[in-house]
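Handout, page 2. Input:
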Amino acid sequence: MERTLRGIAGFVILVSVVLVALTEGIDLSRPTWLWFTAFVGLNLLQSAFSNWCPMMWVLQRFGQRRSQAA
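Output:
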């Protein structure tokens, strides 16, 4: 599950950066799609401290299992 979670987070971040570049160019004075990137980054940061992420809950509901590595 952790690899899936990291893959989804990386994909979402890349998509939001591409959308910024395609729609308005990267202009940090207008961070429209970059708010989406910030949201994903904040979720990753809080999950580093709490060991819980909303996407992990969603993945569990779809049958994804957590890894058994210690």
